[in-house]
Amino acid sequence: MRRLTALLVAVLGLLALLPGLALANDAVDAAVLGADVTILAVDDAPAGPEPAPRDAEDNPARDLGDYGDREIPFTWGAAWLLTALGFIGLMLILTIYRFRVAPPSKDRAST
After folding, report:
1. Fewer beta carbons within 10 Å, N or C terminal of the chain?
2. Which of 40, 41, 67 is nearest to 54 (CA)?
């Protein structure tokens, strides 16, 4: 049981440190690159023609782009799906670890 507890503490500790490491990396990048960054050109003009309204009759992307509004955005559903798959994977890994690295039972240890 100690191994499982140690594994859980290590995983949760790593997950707790990741946001701090990401912020520290951004701070270092900003400190290193901040003094030497030069913007060479600024162009506020649009890069192409104005897009046609999506419901215009002469817009060829109207049929190709499938602009039908959905009640639930795909990314919202994908986020829940990936979260559920992540938890299932974590539970599967912990279960495999528990049964493959389980300590010997007390009956077998006494003989």
Report:
1. C
2. 67
- DSSP classification of residue 55: T
pLDDT in tens, 16-69: 877 776 766 666 566 665 555 566 666 776 677 787 787 788 877 776 655 555
DSSP 64-111: HTT-PPPSS-HHHHHHHHHHHHHHHHHHHHHHHHHHHSPPPPHHHHH-
Q: Yes or no: say if 97 and 1 are a contact pair by the CB < 8 Å rule.
A: no
pLDDT at 86: 97
Tokens of 44: 């506020």
> Residues 101, 3: contact at Cβ < 8 Å?
yes
Q: Tell me which residue has tokens 């400190």.
A: 31
